[in-house]
Amino acid sequence: MEIKSILIKDTTREERIQIVAQGLNQCGGSCDFCSGCDNLGGGSVEAFYEPYINGEKELRQLNEEYVSNSGMVR
Protein backbone atom coordinates (compact mmCIF):
# COMPACT_ATOMS: atom_id res chain seq x y z
CA MET A 1 0.00 0.00 0.00
CA GLU A 2 1.33 3.42 -0.94
CA ILE A 3 0.60 6.14 1.58
CA LYS A 4 1.14 9.73 0.50
CA SER A 5 0.71 11.29 3.95
CA ILE A 6 1.39 9.98 7.44
CA LEU A 7 -0.77 12.62 9.15
CA ILE A 8 -3.55 11.32 11.36
CA LYS A 9 -6.20 13.18 9.38
CA ASP A 10 -5.09 11.41 6.19
CA THR A 11 -4.80 7.86 7.55
CA THR A 12 -6.87 5.15 9.13
CA ARG A 13 -5.85 3.33 12.30
CA GLU A 14 -4.86 0.30 10.21
CA GLU A 15 -2.69 2.47 7.95
CA ARG A 16 -0.99 4.00 10.99
CA ILE A 17 -0.20 0.52 12.31
CA GLN A 18 1.37 -0.29 8.95
CA ILE A 19 3.32 3.00 8.91
CA VAL A 20 4.78 2.23 12.34
CA ALA A 21 5.60 -1.36 11.36
CA GLN A 22 7.34 -0.24 8.15
CA GLY A 23 9.28 2.45 9.98
CA LEU A 24 10.46 0.04 12.65
CA ASN A 25 11.51 -2.47 10.03
CA GLN A 26 14.30 -0.04 9.05
CA CYS A 27 16.55 -1.41 11.79
CA GLY A 28 16.69 -4.67 9.88
CA GLY A 29 14.66 -6.97 12.01
CA SER A 30 11.34 -7.83 13.46
CA CYS A 31 10.18 -6.15 16.65
CA ASP A 32 8.92 -9.46 18.03
CA PHE A 33 10.84 -10.14 21.25
CA CYS A 34 13.39 -7.40 20.38
CA SER A 35 13.18 -4.77 23.18
CA GLY A 36 15.96 -2.82 21.45
CA CYS A 37 14.13 0.50 21.81
CA ASP A 38 13.55 -0.18 25.49
CA ASN A 39 17.24 -0.95 25.96
CA LEU A 40 18.07 2.43 24.37
CA GLY A 41 15.83 4.26 26.86
CA GLY A 42 12.85 4.85 24.61
CA GLY A 43 10.48 2.55 26.39
CA SER A 44 8.41 -0.16 24.79
CA VAL A 45 7.64 0.34 21.12
CA GLU A 46 3.95 -0.40 21.63
CA ALA A 47 3.59 2.23 24.34
CA PHE A 48 5.66 4.80 22.45
CA TYR A 49 3.64 4.67 19.21
CA GLU A 50 0.23 4.01 20.78
CA PRO A 51 -0.78 7.73 20.79
CA TYR A 52 -0.09 7.93 17.03
CA ILE A 53 -1.88 4.69 16.22
CA ASN A 54 -4.87 5.83 18.29
CA GLY A 55 -4.94 9.19 16.51
CA GLU A 56 -3.97 11.26 19.55
CA LYS A 57 -0.52 12.59 18.56
CA GLU A 58 1.33 12.94 15.27
CA LEU A 59 4.61 11.11 14.73
CA ARG A 60 6.36 14.47 14.64
CA GLN A 61 5.06 15.28 18.13
CA LEU A 62 6.24 11.94 19.50
CA ASN A 63 9.69 12.42 17.99
CA GLU A 64 9.96 15.92 19.44
CA GLU A 65 8.96 14.66 22.89
CA TYR A 66 11.49 11.85 22.64
CA VAL A 67 14.32 14.24 21.81
CA SER A 68 13.35 16.94 24.32
CA ASN A 69 13.05 14.39 27.15
CA SER A 70 16.36 12.67 26.38
CA GLY A 71 14.59 9.57 25.20
CA MET A 72 11.86 9.44 27.78
CA VAL A 73 8.33 9.97 26.46
CA ARG A 74 5.84 11.11 29.09
TrEMBL record:
<protein>
    <recommendedName>
        <fullName>Quinolinate sythetase A</fullName>
    </recommendedName>
</protein>
